[in-house]
Specification:
Elements lengths: L1 H9 L15 E3 L12 E3 L4 H4 L2 H11 L21 E5 L3 E6 L11 E6 L4 E2 L6 E6 L6
Parallel strand pairs: 3-7
Antiparallel strand pairs: 1-2, 4-5, 6-7
């Protein structure tokens, strides 16, 4: 039996008229949201956009529309204190922020902190205080 399998596996592949090779698989769609109809079969691979769902899809749509779904790339402004912390906008109940301490004596290497809704976060290196400000998510 092994000899027969070895002979068959070493034989060159031939494409017969009944066996056509395809460049890409066919995919059946089950959702009509931002894609083909549910009953449509699509030839070829789907894009990352077609596979994305939830937050990932929201981020992709915002990027295509030229928006930033979570606000500015970085926060700027006066040094955060306990009385007047740096407000960190977020649609979630937490957010990661980086602190470099600002200019002057407080400047330091980048440190990452998780800011939550429960209490303000203070940088251990410079003492800057961050507080989460929840914003409404208009896309869900």
């Amino acid at each position: 039996m092994f000899a027969r399998l070895a002979r068959l596996s070493s034989a060159p592949l031939r494409a017969s008229s009944s066996t056509a090779f395809r460049a890409a698989p066919r995919t059946r769609m089950f959702s009509a949201i931002d894609g083909p109809r549910p009953d449509e079969i699509v030839d070829g691979p789907l894009s990352a956009f077609d596979h994305a769902t939830g937050r990932e899809k929201m981020e992709m749509i915002a990027e295509m529309e030229g928006r930033k779904p979570y606000g500015d790339d970085y926060l700027g402004g006066p040094f955060g204190t306990r009385e007047k912390p740096v407000l960190v906008p977020s649609v979630f109940d937490n957010r990661i922020v980086g602190c470099v301490g600002g200019d002057g004596d407080n400047a330091h290497d980048l440190l990452w902190h998780e800011v939550t809704t429960e209490k303000p976060t203070m940088c251990a290196e410079c003492g800057q205080v961050f507080a989460l400000k929840q914003i409404e998510n208009h896309h869900h």
